[in-house]
């Protein structure tokens, strides 16, 4: 069990952006998160991988409290996660989230999707919000689609708009919950490229994914989860070439050899 | 052939029906939306109130509610709706009040079923960018819910139009009141019935057609 966590006893520093301490969660009888300790420092890109049902998506969703936790502590930028109300909404505005199924607001245009949070949460004036939204859409390569509705876009385009929508809030950290799992194969790369650019720009990112190529090239650290626990944490090269736990060896042998 | 209509203000009576319908429709849409908001609220007290209201009100016959507004609210509790001396105005306002209270329960349930058609991810994404509960409901969930229940709401509106005839029970001078008077005074009972039936079809048929067209046009594409 000494390999369970490399950060378990680390003293929190000012650079620890997201800290999970001894987090537990149950879905009924199922213990989906078991004693999770994880610290993400500013600017770090952490990729969470593991078999289905291992709790990685749940872990990701607890960080902005879309899932509540039963025990333990989560803090972001030194502040414990508020339970509800205004405080929680304010915190969520600082934590960008990208979903597997995009979840763009279906009744609003692409541009309105990216402006909404700025207007209603940040209270930016309309002109500035539109300027910023168009800039971000340009950055993710969908500027020409600004006036269309989400249903008129391809999956890859929708997901890039979703990334722009999250970035419009100037988040401190971005959570990606299997961002490419619902995409056709030829659209995965256009999304990964945007994410890689974000990583290079120094964004703090927590990415739940099955894209091992992305983990290798963009991650500072790989967190391997199985059965609700963090089984192994390592830098990508070390994890992929020389995993320590049997569970990780078994998992990698199944996904890398075909 | 239509000389039995002479001396009766049929158009005026239907105009009263239209006024009853329009005011009650707007009022029940507002109150019904608020009730639907309560029924999906995270606050248990509001959820409880919304559920209790809907289940009590929609199970009481409309006639009982309308008669109660007059005999109960006005006569016993002195709720004169700002017109203590003008009984015509008072009866009209009491009837509208009763129709709103009753119809809102059905509007609420239609909207709530619309809320259930909005994928959970829409609300999650809205919360994730920092919108609070009211904003999530007002900006994301309700606009999509409304568009998916225009059809059911058209049904409620058509039912309301016809339900306004119950206002005859407290003497509001709408279409059914006039029909009763005419049937008592004239011989052509069937023709009178046909005229009033046609009048209601003229009111409700376009409602259904226009809202049906709108519901197709405004449907949210996913």
Quick description:
The complex is a heterodimer of chains A (258) and B (222). Chain A is α/β, with parallel strands linked by helices and 258 residues long. Chain A has helices spanning 56-62, 85-93, 110-120, 126-139, 155-167, 185-200, 212-218, 236-241, 246-256; strands spanning 16-27, 30-41, 45-49, 71-76, 79-80, 95-98, 173-177, 204-208, 221-226, 229-234.
What is the strand arrangement across the widest sheet of chain A? 6-7-8-3-9-10
Largest interface: A-B, 32 and 22 residues
How many distinct domains of chain B?
A: 1
CATH superfamily of chain B: MetI-like
CATH architecture of chain B: Orthogonal Bundle
> Quick one: CATH class of chain B?
Mainly Alpha
Q: Fill in the CATH topology of chain B.
A: MetI-like fold
Instruction: Give the tally of β-strands of chain B.
Output: 0
Strand percentage of chain B lies at under 5%
Helix percentage of chain B: over 70%
Report the span from N to C terminus of chain B: 56 Å
Oligomer: heterodimer
Spans where pLDDT lies below 50 across 5 or more residues of chain B: none
Number of strands of chain A: 10
Calculate Rg of chain B over CA atoms: 20 Å
> What does the average pLDDT of chain B come to?
92
**How large is the radius of gyration of chain A?**
18 Å
Spans of at least 5 consecutive residues with low confidence of chain A: 1-12
Q: How would you sum up the major sheet of chain A?
A: 6 strands, mixed
Distance between the termini of chain A: 31 Å
Could you explain the architecture of this structure?
- The complex is a heterodimer of chains A (258) and B (222).
- Chain A has 258 residues and is an alpha/beta fold.
- Helix content of chain A is 36%, strand content 24%.
- In chain A, helix 3 (110-120) runs parallel beside helix 5 (155-167).
- The longest helix of chain A is centred in the last third of the chain and has 16 residues, at 185-200.
- The model of chain A is unreliable at 1-12 (pLDDT under 50).
- Chain B is built from nine helices and no strands.
- Chain B has helices at residues 10-39, 44-57, 62-76, 87-117, 120-128, 133-148, 150-163, 175-185, 189-218.
- In chain B, helix 4 packs antiparallel against helix 7.
- The termini of chain B are far apart.
- Classes of the chains: A alpha/beta (258), B mainly alpha (222).
- Chains A and B meet through helix 2, strand 6, helix 3 and helix 5 of A and helix 5 and helix 6 of B.
């Amino acid at each position: 069990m000494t390999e369970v966590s490399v950060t378990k006893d680390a003293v929190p520093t000012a650079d620890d952006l997201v800290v999970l301490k001894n987090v537990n969660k149950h879905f009924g009888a199922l213990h989906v998160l078991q004693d999770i300790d994880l610290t993400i420092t500013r600017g770090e890109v952490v990729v969470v991988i593991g078999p289905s049902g291992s709790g990685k998506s749940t872990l990701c969703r607890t960080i902005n409290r879309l899932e509540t936790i039963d025990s333990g502590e989560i803090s972001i930028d030194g502040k414990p996660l508020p339970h509800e109300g205004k405080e929680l909404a304010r915190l969520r505005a600082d934590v960008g989230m990208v979903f597997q199924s995009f979840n763009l607001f279906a009744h609003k245009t692409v541009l309105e999707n990216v402006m909404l949070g700025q207007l209603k949460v940040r209270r930016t004036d309309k002109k500035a919000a539109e300027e910023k939204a168009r800039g971000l859409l340009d950055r993710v390569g969908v500027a020409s689609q600004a006036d269309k509705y989400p249903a008129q876009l391809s999956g890859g385009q929708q997901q890039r708009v979703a990334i722009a929508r999250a970035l419009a809030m100037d988040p401190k950290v971005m959570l990606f919950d299997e961002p490419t799992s619902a995409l056709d194969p030829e659209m995965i790369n256009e999304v990964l490229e945007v994410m890689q650019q974000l990583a290079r720009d120094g964004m703090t990112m927590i990415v739940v994914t099955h894209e091992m190529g992305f983990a290798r090239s963009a991650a500072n650290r790989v967190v391997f989860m199985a059965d609700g626990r963090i089984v192994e944490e390592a830098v990508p090269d070390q994890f992929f070439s020389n995993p320590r736990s049997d569970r990780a060896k078994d998992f990698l042998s199944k996904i890398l050899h075909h | 052939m239509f000389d039995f209509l002479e001396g009766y203000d049929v158009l005026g009576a239907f105009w009263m029906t239209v006024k009853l319908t329009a005011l009650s429709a707007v009022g029940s849409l507002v109150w019904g939306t608020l009730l639907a908001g309560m029924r999906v609220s995270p606050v248990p007290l509001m959820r409880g109130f919304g559920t209790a209201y809907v289940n009590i009100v929609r199970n009481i016959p409309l006639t009982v509610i309308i008669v109660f507004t007059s005999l109960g609210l006005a006569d016993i509790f002195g709720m004169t709706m700002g017109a203590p001396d003008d009984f015509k105005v008072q009866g009209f306002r009491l009837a509208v009040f009763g129709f709103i209270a009753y119809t809102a329960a059905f509007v609420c349930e239609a909207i709530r079923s619309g809320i259930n058609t909005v994928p959970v991810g829409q609300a999650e994404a809205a919360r994730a960018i920092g919108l609070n509960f009211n904003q999530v409901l007002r900006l994301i969930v309700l606009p999509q819910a409304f568009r998916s229940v225009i059809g059911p709401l058209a049904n409620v509106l058509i039912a309301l139009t016809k339900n306004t005839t119950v206002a005859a029970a407290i003497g509001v001078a709408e279409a059914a009141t006039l029909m009763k008077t005419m049937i008592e005074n004239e011989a052509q009972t069937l023709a009178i019935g046909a005229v009033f039936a046609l009048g209601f079809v003229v009111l409700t048929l376009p409602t259904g057609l226009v809202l049906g067209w709108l519901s197709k046009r405004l449907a949210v594409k996913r």
